[in-house]
Specification:
With 380 residues, the protein is an alpha/beta fold. The protein folds into two domains: 191 residues, Rossmann fold (3-Layer(aba) Sandwich), CATH 3.40.50; 173 residues, Rossmann fold (3-Layer(aba) Sandwich), CATH 3.40.50. 39% of the residues lie in helices and 18% in strands.
Length: 380
């Protein structure tokens, strides 16, 4: 692939998806490809975006060619961008797919761009079926899937969902790579000083945008049980991330369970340059999800060699081998609390951290680029 057009989130948009597309662009550029990124003039209308802002406050990366030219809500724009890509004749258009909202825009651009008989459209697919379901999900996703040439999926759950729409288009597995844009780990003392925390306390972390499927309610119930069982002495739970919905529900649950002193709430979007302090201050990441495909937060934990406790949903157990770098539990209070107690048994954390180095080898950007290249060859 000598010429690659990346289409999706990138600066000035914030978040993990933008980081992924930028890192993928750098990875292909390092291989000698001519790469440009086409990102949004409008990603989500404000009334559809539940967070405080869609935009990053970091400066634009100087090493990337990023152009804002795609509106997700303007069909005339989709035609214009598709025709432009068709004329430019990249070997590959690389897209990220995570929500049916993007399907009409991305699908139309893909159909037009492929009309030159040369360009292939490949997709790094996060979710085929979204976590929160709507009536338009299946028809939108079907339109998109039928518009592109091939896929890289990041968990078996995603592949099973993709099979509902196509079993004939090329699709290969490559796990979610590590995030490499958050810097290096720091000492617990430095991290706690930065966050205003007491370094003598043992902290657990729930991290990321807070949506109902991520199971914060289950974790709070679990923490209440642990407290009643005498397992939270000198231990606190950090919840770090922006509430997208139902903040009041969780605040009420914290109050009802008597956890005001136990839960440290950092309810805002955590900027890239602050992520390492949260992951360096804590002993364990807890992902008590009710449903999942895979999770970028898991890969952040790997990046900082932080052990994990995850529920056995979607692809999480594929990425976190049980009793190696973390524990895989059922989606109930008893199983989660048992894993928490077991984690703090003598030597467990140190053993899991030492196992991280070998497990991390699975999650490279080069492996993802190799996989995309293989899918490209399969489409020709």
């Amino acid at each position: 692939m000598k010429k690659v057009a990346v289409l999706g989130p990138a600066h000035p948009y914030r978040g993990g998806l933008a980081s992924i597309m930028e890192i993928m662009a750098r990875t292909f550029a390092a291989r000698g490809a001519e790469v440009d990124i086409k990102t949004f003039t409008l990603q989500y209308p404000e009334f559809l975006f539940p967070g405080k802002t869609q935009y990053s406050d970091r400066p634009a990366p100087e090493d990337l060619n990023i152009e804002r030219c795609v509106s997700t809500v303007n069909p005339l724009n989709w035609i214009k961008v598709g025709r432009r890509i068709r004329r430019e004749r990249p070997d590959v258009v690389l897209m990220k797919y995570w929500t049916p909202f993007m399907a009409p825009c991305f699908g139309t651009i893909a159909r037009i761009a492929r009309g030159n008989g040369h360009t292939k459209v490949l997709v790094q697919i996060d979710n085929v079926i979204p976590h929160e379901h709507h009536l338009i999900d299946r028809p939108c996703t079907s339109y998109f899937v039928n518009s592109v040439d091939g896929f890289v999926y990041m968990s078996q759950q995603v592949k099973d969902d993709l099979d509902q729409f196509t079993k004939t288009k090329p699709a290969l597995f490559s796990p979610h790579p590590l995030f490499v844009n958050f810097g290096e780990a720091v000492s617990k003392e430095e991290a706690c000083a930065k966050l205003g925390l007491d370094p003598s306390v043992e902290y657990s972390l729930f991290f990321g945008i807070i949506r109902d499927y991520k199971g914060l309610d289950l974790l709070l119930d679990t923490w209440a049980k642990l407290k009643a069982d005498g397992q939270t002495a000198n231990r606190k739970l950090i919840v770090a991330g922006e509430f997208y919905y139902n903040r009041e529900k969780y605040i009420e649950q914290i109050d009802r369970l008597g956890l005001k002193e136990d839960v440290l709430l950092h309810d805002y979007f955590v900027a890239d340059d602050m992520v390492r302090y949260f992951f360096s201050a804590v002993d364990v990441l807890i992902q008590p999800y009710w449903s999942a495909t895979q999770s970028g937060v898991t890969q952040i934990a790997y990046n900082f060699s932080l052990p994990m406790i995850v529920t056995n949903v979607g692809g999480l157990a594929e990425i976190v081998p049980d009793d190696v770098v973390g524990y895989v539990t059922d989606t109930n209070v008893e199983s989660l609390s048992e894993a928490f107690v077991k984690f703090y048994s003598e030597g467990t954390a140190e053993r899991m951290r030492s196992n991280m180095a070998e497990e991390r080898k699975r999650f490279s950007w080069e492996a993802m680029a190799d996989c995309l290249t293989e899918v490209y060859k399969m489409t020709k």
